[in-house]
Structure formats: structure tokens, C-alpha cells
Write a structure and sequence with these properties.
Rossmann fold, alpha/beta, two-stranded antiparallel sheet, binds glutamine
């Protein structure tokens, strides 16, 4: 994070704060590494300096944030369970540093695999590499940026129905130097892409897939702070996935890729829906790094 050094604190004072913040984190069942991450971003101390506590004897540590503000933000982590990424305004995903705010889902590490799966599909079918790829429900833009990076000759389109999300995604594109690689559209799923009917080589999405009734039982960080729009997949969680199965055949080229993330336990239902539709072949399920069946991929016949 860029900051101006308007404030100064002694190493001793900061160490005291660091120590009490770690004790409070433990009590609140929050990993103490979050304190390192928090100070790393907001004070600019690297992780090794923090872990070795070498800063303890420094007479002056310049900062861009007052101790009161730092403490106020950390209290929001403890008391309101605001996810750390929203407090520091940044999430790291693949090799990107992405701005995030409460208008977008915090991109998850497991979602990174979608990019590798899309790339693997284009290695199997190289003709898909140079075509049009879409990220439906782009949020912070993460998937679109991942696609832009690996499909260097592809045209990437990113759609979201939330203008708040698109503002963040566009800002991220500019920050990453990808503004001319990703074209953003405001609208619902395929609606802004009418002109690309039958011309899309790959559809990638991390749609809302959590059953509505499960949302209140999710971690407070998720249920109270992340956008419901990005989480709630209707009564069985499959509303959006069902919709994407039925609508994608109008937009994909023959042999085009249909690729989504889903929740643990949904693989069987998604496979059955794809197979029953009759327009898809080679339906495959892939697991994430924790071994959870998390991704469904199919090709349009
Ligand atoms: N993976 C998110 C979670 O763990 C859910 C994202 C989604 O619904 N697409 O809560």
C-alpha cells in the first residue's frame, strides 16, 4: 500500500501494540499472522522484521496512519469480524494485488484453479486460445485478469450486474495495466453480450452457489460483510449454475468451454444437469487443492 509518512511512533510503542493485538487475535480465534499482514500493509514493515521483532529498538517508525486509526481498524476486525482484506483494501490472488471493498467478494485461493483449468483446456484445444472468453459475474475482476494473463491472444470480456463491483474491477484493470485487455460490461450474465452470440470460446464463472438457507450459518466474516449478491444461489444454491447451463449454448462456439466453480456436494447435481441438457460433452469435475470437488467443465457439442 502506498502511504505518506505523516506519523511517527517508537519501536517500543509499536511493539506493545503488536503484542496486545496478537493476544487479542488469539482470544478472538483469528490467526495471529493477520496482525503481521495488517501491520505489513498499513505500517509498511515486512513480515520478517515483524516476526523477528527487530523493529522493537528502533527509535522512530514513520507511518501513514495514526495509532488511533490503526487501533480503530483492528477493533473492527475483532469486534465486527470485518474481513482483513476489506480493512486494508487489498486481496492477493494469483500474482495480482487487487483492490477490494464490500461491493465485491474477496477472491478466494481455490478460485485461482479456474485459470489453470481454462489454460489446460486451451492446451488440449489450441483453437480456443485466440477466441473470446467471458468472466460472468466478475466482481473484483480477478478471473478476467487471470484469463487475460494466460490467454495472451484471447479477447476477454467481464460482466457484472453491480456497478459498484465494476468500478472496483475497472480500477484494478488500470492498476494492473490490463485496461486494454479486458472489456467490462454492466448487465446481467449474457445480456450485454448479445453481439457475441455463437462466438464465445470460453465461459468462466464463480457464480453465487450457496443455498439461501445456509447463508446465516456461514462464518460471520462472510455472511455479515460480503455481498449477498455474490453468495446466494437460491434455495438449492444452483439457480445461477442452472441458468448458465441453459443459456451458454446460445453464446458458445461449437467445442467452446463451459467452466464454473461450485460448492462441495454440488458436483453430482451439476454433472447430471450438464449431461441431461444434451448440448454438452466431456463433462469433467476437478477438485481444489483441499480435495473438494469444486469445478465443473464441459464442452459445447
Ligand atoms: N467461495 C465463497 C465462500 O466460501 C462463495 C463464493 C460463491 O458463492 N461463489 O463463501
Amino acid at each position: 500500500m502506498d502511504f505518506q509518512s505523516n506519523f511517527v511512533i517508537s519501536g517500543q510503542e509499536l511493539w506493545k501494540w503488536y503484542y496486545q493485538a496478537k493476544v487479542a487475535a488469539l482470544k478472538a480465534d483469528i490467526p495471529t499472522t493477520e496482525v503481521d499482514w495488517f501491520l505489513g500493509e498499513l505500517v509498511g514493515l515486512d513480515r520478517l522484521t515483524l516476526r523477528l521483532e527487530c523493529f522493537k529498538d528502533w527509535p522512530k517508525i514513520p507511518r501513514g496512519i495514526s495509532m488511533e486509526e490503526l487501533d480503530r481498524l483492528w477493533r473492527r476486525r475483532l469486534d465486527e469480524r470485518v474481513p482483513l482484506q476489506y480493512l486494508i483494501g487489498v486481496a492477493y490472488w494469483r500474482n495480482f494485488s487487487l483492490d477490494v471493498g464490500t461491493g465485491v467478494l474477496i477472491p478466494r485461493p481455490e478460485t485461482e484453479c479456474l485459470i489453470d483449468l481454462a489454460l489446460a483446456a486451451t492446451n488440449t484445444f489450441p483453437n480456443l486460445r485466440e477466441g473470446n472468453w467471458v468472466d460472468l459475474g466478475t466482481g473484483s475482476g480477478a478471473i478476467a485478469f487471470g484469463l487475460a494473463e494466460v490467454l495472451t491472444n484471447g479477447s476477454i470480456y467481464a460482466v457484472d450486474c453491480s456497478s459498484e463491483a465494476l468500478t472496483i474491477a475497472r480500477k484494478n484493470a488500470a492498476k494492473l495495466g490490463l485496461s486494454d485487455r479486458v472489456i467490462f460490461y454492466h448487465g446481467s450474465w449474457w445480456q450485454p453480450l448479445e453481439h457475441l452470440r455463437g462466438q464465445i470460446s470460453g465461459m468462466v464463472a464463480n457464480p453465487p452457489y450457496i443455498p439461501s438457507s445456509m447463508i446465516p450459518s456461514l462464518q460471520c466474516e462472510v455472511s455479515k460483510h460480503e455481498p449477498l449478491l455474490a453468495l446466494d444461489g437460491g434455495s438449492d444454491g444452483l439457480d445461477c449454475i442452472r441458468y448458465l447451463i441453459s443459456t451458454a449454448p446460445t453464446y458458445l462456439v461449437s467445442g467452446g468451454v463451459w467452466l464454473v466453480e461450485m460448492m462441495a456436494g454440488q458436483a453430482k447435481a451439476v454433472t447430471e444437469m450438464l449431461e441431461a441438457h444434451g448440448s454438452y460433452s466431456q463433462v469433467q469435475i476437478f477438485s481444489d487443492l483441499e480435495g473438494v470437488d469444486r469445478f465443473a467443465l464441459a464442452y459445447l457439442i
